[in-house]
């Protein structure tokens, strides 16, 4: 049986060389950048917001000195989750009662166990003992990351470490419990379908990941949003809960955070793009969003 690890991984790719005045009044934006400067609306100090992706190969991981400088000169750093505690993550990924097999019909259970044997290299007994108490979303994450252990970097953890080493407070827009609850609130059919998509096409995740990396590295947040909306599969049937609702929930918090302090904000690139994305929602509130090009 292969070693099993979970990681909360989020990735930044930022470098700025100049700032070009441009607003987000058109959709999709033509600005190819993941870094945006927030100013105006009587805020006392400029802040920055970055788009991230949940994982990236080590060879593509890029953390320039300019990014370090932005973080080090910030008065606070804001991530989706403020303090990434792996043990707490694991607690929220386990079922309180029953097993993951309860989500499936008998013939689907057989397919699931065969898939686990072929793809995860675990016997039915090992699956029931070691993975049976996992939530469907956790199993999806495990399957998508099983071949990436040791090959990926986490920008969230790097940013968090850099902030802490410089005694900069690290805050969160939501908690681990709130994030996991989004998937817990999916109905049984949706959660079952997440797993069945993996079983039907075991290589789909790696193909989707490669395509997502390519789109992300183009640095157009609207293109990233559109890709997630179109290719997100069964999870994106809950796109309002995953993206739109969270975007709206974050705006009052962001406004409060940037009111007096120079703030570095990092959230998923899919949250920045779109007509209901964080960038346009901030612009509607009267802020000026300027792309920082590289």
What can you tell me about this protein's structure?
With 294 residues, the protein is α/β, with parallel strands linked by helices. The chain is built from 13 helices and ten strands. The strands form two sheets. Strands 1, 2, 3, 4, 6, 8, 9 and 10 form an eight-stranded mixed β-sheet that branches. The protein has a two-stranded antiparallel ribbon with strand order 5-7. Helix 5 (136-145) runs parallel beside helix 8 (188-200) and helix 9 runs antiparallel to helix 10 (221-231). The longest helix is centred in the C-terminal third of the chain and has 20 residues, at 239-258. Residues 1-22 and 233-237 have low confidence and may be disordered.
Give the termini separation.
Answer: 44 Å
**Unreliable parts:** 1-22, 233-237
- The secondary-structure element order is EEEEEHEHHHHEHEHHHHHEHHE
Instruction: Determine the strand fraction and express it as a percent band.
Output: 5-15%
Fraction of helical residues: 40-55%
Mean pLDDT: 83
Structural class: alpha/beta
The biggest sheet amounts to:
8 strands, mixed
- Calculate Rg over CA atoms: 20 Å
Tell how many strands the DSSP assignment holds: 10
H/I helix tally: 13
Shape: elongated
Summed up:
By secondary structure, this protein is α/β, with parallel strands linked by helices. It has 13 helices and ten strands.
Task: Compile the SSE list and pairings.
Elements (H helix, E strand, L loop, with lengths): L10 E2 L5 E2 L15 E5 L7 E7 L2 E2 L7 H8 L3 E6 L4 H7 L13 H15 L3 H8 L4 H10 L6 E2 L1 H11 L4 E5 L1 H9 L3 H13 L3 H14 L3 H11 L7 H20 L4 E6 H4 L5 H7 L3 E6 L1
Parallel strand pairs: 4-9, 6-8, 6-9
Antiparallel strand pairs: 1-4, 2-10, 3-4, 3-10, 5-7
